[in-house]
Hints:
The protein is an alpha/beta fold. The chain folds into two domains: 4-158, Rossmann fold (3-Layer(aba) Sandwich); 172-261, ProC C-terminal domain-like fold (Orthogonal Bundle). The protein is 54% helix and 13% strand. The protein is built from twelve helices and eight strands. The chain has helices at 11-22, 37-47, 54-60, 73-80, 99-105, 138-148, 162-170, 172-189, 194-215, 219-226, 232-242, 245-265; strands at 4-7, 30-33, 50-51, 63-66, 89-92, 112-116, 126-132, 152-156. It has an eight-stranded mixed β-sheet, sandwiched between helices. The longest helix has 22 residues, at 194-215.
Amino acid sequence: MTTIAVLGAGKIGEALLSGLLQAGRAPDRLLFTERHPERSAELSRRYGIRGTDVATAAAEADVLVVAVKPQDIEPLLTELAPAVGPGTLVVSLCAGLPTALFERRLPEGVPVVRVMPNTPMVVGEAMSAISGGRHAGPEHLTLVAELLGSVGKVVRVPESQQDAVTALSGSGPAYFFYLVEAMIDAGILLGIPRAVATDLIIQSAVGAATMLRDSGEHPVTLREAVTSPAGTTIMAVRELERHGVRAALLAAIEAARDRSEELGREHERD
């Protein structure tokens, strides 16, 4: 059976561990590393999974899932390089970091799969895009897709698209939260109590997302179904267009893509 170690048990790392357990993985086949002893002890109590150090995780695990922040990758790779074996699969959940970085710093031939998940992983509704590095074969991508399928949906993309994926779905939940926050404020401005406005908007968001997922209709078709001639919705849409909301969203996602590319370039000379 495959032993999996999550290196960095923050929110995403913990969510993956929880999802793997719910999918039927045995606790004794899971490991994690965590810098803070108090949190490590808490996670072990909560999930029955052993916390350990990087060298032990590398020695015991068949799959190492790197779930640290991009700025923390250098010390981790320094610690990991002498410990990881060539048959170990390394899965990176680090935004902006290319597989080439791991391949340069780890022993020759180590297979690396790059993943861009997002925070709905904590509720089992992640959108994860996966790409294989030079040494990753179809069997590695299949295994990673199986693991991540326990916490949401998975798609395969060329690594050249990963920075765009990071901007689109990796950061995407924040855009929806931002929009919901603004709509709740609008409800308050119109005289609706905050709690009521929150319920109205969140359920509207859940319903709209379900329609998008289940109906098979294009977003334009669904929007037009709500937009009656000379009605309230078209007046609102006109204001959104007048204020350049569509253009602002396009620019925002391009900026996120650019930052993801920049994160990767910061490590090019390592």
